[in-house]
Amino acid sequence: LEKMTDLVAVWEVALSDGVHKIEFEHGTTSGKRVVYVDGKEEIRKEWMFKLVGKETFTVGVSKTKAAINIDAVSGFAYEYTLEINGKSLKKYMESRLKTTNTWILSLGGTDYRIVLEKDTMDVWCNGQKMETAGEFVEDGTETHFTIGDQSCYIKAVSSGKRKEGIIHTLIVNDREIPEAVE
């Protein structure tokens, strides 16, 4: 099995439904191009005469658009860049920091990754979009959901500062969970 002999790039992409691994094989003698997402082959092209170009595919439950750009740097050297939703991976992750909050916690020996999409108020837990119930409270809103038999909620309160905007806090069993940095 000659699997992964032409592996030239690996990226980790944090989306709401989880962290996805993207691997790219580029055979510069055969022109072969193979894209794997989470270990599953998404694209395979053999004997491509054009060694530069772009491969497009989707990632994750929400079918997020992705593309790998193949550019010649010099001679037989190539550069591979990943784009997510039309932005470079770096720009995409920077904008995601502004539009999502992520928490990592352990409950009863199981690890959970919880993501809040601030624009839609959708809550994701380990790749599943959660059923939520929103409620107005004295100082803001609470978005309630359940993990296993634990009741959880994300509290949204105004920071009182325009630049900071709204502060989101995850509460599980009356305990505040610190936000994770991915």
From TrEMBL:
Annotated GO biological process: apoptotic process; negative regulation of extrinsic apoptotic signaling pathway via death domain receptors
GO CC terms: cytoplasm
UniProt subcellular location: Cytoplasm
Superkingdom, taxonomy of origin: Eukaryota
Main location: cytoplasm
Pfam families (UniProt xref): FAIM1
Keywords: Apoptosis, Cytoplasm
Family designation: Belongs to the FAIM1 family.
Function in brief: Plays a role as an inducible effector molecule that mediates Fas resistance produced by surface Ig engagement in B cells.
Protein name, as recorded: Fas apoptotic inhibitory molecule 1
Organism the protein comes from: Todus mexicanus
